[in-house]
Amino acid sequence: MRILHTSDWHVGRRFNEADVLGDLGLVLDRLEEQIGEYAVDVVVVSGDLFDRAAPPAEAVRFLSERLQRLREAGPRIVLISGNHDGASRLGYGAWAAAAGGLHIITDAEQIGVPVVIDDEHGPVHFYGIPFLDPKIDRSRFAEVPDAYAELTSHERILDAAMDRVRASLATHDYPRSVVLAHCFAINAARGSVRAEDDQLGDLVTDSMRSIASGGVEVTPAVVFEPATYVALGHLHSRQRLAEHIRYPGAPLAYSFSDRGPRGSWLVELDADGLGAVQWLELPVPREMATITGTLEQLLSDPAYDELSEHWISAVLTDPVRQPHAMRRLQERFAYCVALEYRPAESGAAPVRYRDVLAGKRDEQLAAEFVPAVRGGAPASDEELELIGEAFEAIRATEVRA
Question: Could you give the C-alpha distances from 354 to 116, 311, 326, 351, 391, in angstroms and in order?
Fold first, then answer.
């Protein structure tokens, strides 16, 4: 059996307020082609199909059409809800969709109930564990004594979910199995209170929403034993926690901190369990670049000509803010979507704020503020006169009060 593992489509998400639904469509076009090229039997999508719980109508239409196209290409589809999805909306009509080969798992009551798909070697059991919030979902595990007291972390509630899976596997004499889960898993010992910063590294990106509960958002990957393969979702870059435990990452980068290649995992199960696992690259419709310098440097340096079609994050080092900087940058870089000011170090000793204010009248401070926000142009004589009159009026009001 060949399984394509993808996740975190985030349909409806924007890239720094720029619409990227067309870009996502181009990426999924290629994923659809790969299904045919590699004779994929099952597609698993491990959560966050939508970017928000109440997606716009355009996003709903897009996802519906894409799932239909994938199903028409041949494979069965198994998907779960993630922390961005509205579980009840995504799961609406799941009972009817299952009859057509689209299996949608969004409810805790579905955990432990396998989707059974056969190949030439026999059955493979697919178990979905949708995103579980310990604060909200622990009451759904009535079989756990005093669930409110016990299931207080992601590790504990996922372990309870896996107990249902393990019980089902035992009933069926532990067949080959695939577990889909949407969570933040790391290689750590059971009972770890929290991950250290060096464990998280580059795993957390700007396009991710925290799933922390009580300050803890991670779970040790060992809770998913003894699944043959664990198809994880939530992290936006590909990760291999073990040969049989992987994240594919998001198929499209949604922030400048989303790193690494885009793609999915092609997983092959043989008669004995896990066979080969292969990375399938997906196209990147638009590359990203961060450029740094003064505004005039960024606008005139020919070295940046090759970046005209990239997503651009510009870091300006001008000592003062430049007027209309974003508009001027977008005249050269049509896809400049982020702007940050980071003045270059002057080499002078740092000046304390109280020293800047010392001995200066209000009128003088206001006059010095004008060039700081107007590209260096000082206040005119007429403006200085208006500033003086304004402060005189304020003082007169204060005296009358």
Answer: 71, 40, 32, 9, 21
Per-residue confidence at 345, pLDDT binned at 50, 70, 90?
A: low
Encode pLDDT of 225-274 as tens digits: 999 999 999 999 999 999 999 999 999 999 998 878 999 999 999 999 99
- DSSP character string of 72-101: HTS-EEEEE--SSS-HHHHTTTHHHHHHTT
Name the amino acid, one letter, at 280.
Answer: L
Tell the burial category of 157 from Cβ atoms under 10 Å away from its Cβ (0-12, 13-18, 19+). buried
3-state secondary structure 110-127: HCCCCEEEEECCEEEEEE
CA–CA gap between residue 141 and residue 67 (Å, rounded): 31
Query: pTM above the 0.85 mark?
Result: no
Provide CB contacts within 8 A for 76, sequence distance 6+.
41, 42, 43, 101, 102, 103, 115, 117
49 in Cβ contact with 58 (< 8 Å):
no
> Could you give the C-alpha distances from 92 to 86, 88, 89, 104, in angstroms and in order?
10, 6, 5, 9
Q: Would you state the structure tokens that stand for residue 383, as one six-digit string?
A: 């403006």
Domains of the chain: 2-281 (3.60.21.10), 288-400 (no CATH)
Yes or no: say if 218 and 272 are a contact pair by the CB < 8 Å rule.
no
- What would you measure as the largest C-alpha separation in the chain, in angstroms? 93
- On the 0-12 / 13-18 / 19+ scale of CB atoms within 10 A, 127 is buried
CA distance 325 to 185: 41
Distance, in Å, from the CA atom of 147 to the CA atom of 155, rounded to the nearest integer, reads 13
Taken in order 217, 104, 9, 5, is the CA torsion positive or negative?
A: positive
Residues 149/157, Cβ–Cβ less than 8 Å: no
Buried/exposed 358-391: b ≥16 CB within 10 Å, e otherwise:
eeeeeeeebbeebeeeeeeeebeeeebeebeeee
Strand order in the sheet with 263-270: 102-105, 76-80, 42-46, 2-6, 263-270, 273-281
Who's near 199: CB < 8 A, 6+ residues apart? 186, 188
- Tokens read off for 126: 């697919």
